[in-house]
Amino acid sequence: MNLADHEAVEQLEVFVRSPDAPRWFRKRFEHHNRERRRGSTAKANAAARAASAQQPAQDDKGPSRRAFDATVAVETKIAAVRAHGLLWDRDQQNPAWTVREALGHARPKPHGTCVKEMLAALGAVKGPLPRSGGALVEELVLHILHVDLQEFSRNKKGNVAKQCLPKHALDDAAQVWKDYHKSASHEVARKALKTNQSYALLWNAFKRVVLSECGLHVVAAPSQRVYFEEPHARPNGPHALEKEGRWRQPVTAPSAWQPAPEDTADARENAKPRAFVRSAAYEQSMGGLGAQPDFEAPAPEDEDALECPDKGTKSEWDAMWPVEHRVKREACGPAQALRVSADRLRWVTPARGVGPQRRSMPRRCAATQTHARRQRRP
Fold it and tell me: The domain containing residue 274 runs over which residues?
């Protein structure tokens, strides 16, 4: 079909304003046709609002297949939170960490505009959206937890999907998240949210990525999966394929003060200086290299080693003072071998005193050797 240029452009503009146009195509069209003049943004927004206001009057084909309403009462969503085994608000009788507390301690916070567009794509809120970022995140988490409890069903084509969330809405929500997370640190999550996959795989990935960013945790262990049919818990399997949509992954609200893998790494790094001081104390107490294993004893660790003001000799000072009370003037070895007679003791005394004279030293050494030979005879 051959069209004139103005007719083709006119049909393209009509398609862009229609609800059948994908969201990414509409955003790309607006980006490429923006006006770079002062006040162009306000004019473009006003024109878009006017076009959206006139769109229902111009549409005489009835509601589009992409139009749906997934809004439910807040009480129903909070009941879904309890069905997950979580607490929405603080309970004096239960010390468990609540969902709202986990959302409040999430770092970094989710992008506000991204949350708004995901809520619009999911059809979670009917009417104006909340203004505060915390309320927006709460609305998104409540809706995801509610949709997660809904069972998967097969449509006329035999595909698995949830009745409260069409496939195109899930694709739009996943695309919104990818549009606002383009850094290299989110590359793994972006690959998991690819749209050309089954509904169940995309929903599990979307739930895991969004809830983890909001401050919750999705347990991915196969033994913890919750099946929609009896028996719900099957820790030993066998497990159905993820694309079949027969189970869901449980969600937990981790405490902000609970040790995390990052805390373990920090503790491991903090233990390295302690190990250095411990090895220095062990070496100094044993006299360095060449110590006898039979006489070695482990030295205690100095808890105040890192507070020593003398940085140059820190290891030496910290290694010596904890073991001063263990140092004793005692002989080492068997007592019989250490017994010395008064005559032998004169050998090590100066000659000017009571020590042996030069002329008598050969005779004394010969007598000692003769005595030693007699002792060795049987």
Answer: 270-326
Amino acid at 330: E
Q: Average pLDDT over the chain, rounded to whole?
A: 76
The pTM of the full predicted model, rounded to 2 decimals, is 0.54
Residue 260 lies in a domain: no
Radius of gyration of the chain measured on its C-alpha atoms: 40
The reply to whether omega before 108 is within 30° of 0 (cis) is yes
The identity of residue 229, as a single letter, is: E
Q: Locate tokens 């994908």: which residue?
A: 22
Same domain, 99 and 205: yes
List CB contacts of 128: < 8 A, sequence separation 6 or more: none
Query: Do 210 and 287 have their domain in common?
Result: no
Which residue ranges in the chain fall short of pLDDT 70? 1, 35-71, 256-267, 270-325, 327, 346-361, 364, 367-369, 371-378
**Residue among 87, 83, 201, 99 nearest 150 (CA):** 83
If asked whether residues 129 and 219 sit together in one domain, one would say yes
Neighbours of 81 (CB within 10 A): 22
| Residue 300 in domain | yes
Note the pLDDT tens digit of each residue in 170-188. 999 999 999 999 889 999 9
Residue 122 covered by a domain: yes
Please, are residues 150 and 164 in contact by the beta-carbon 8 Å criterion?
Answer: yes
Task: Give the per-residue pLDDT at 61.
Answer: 40
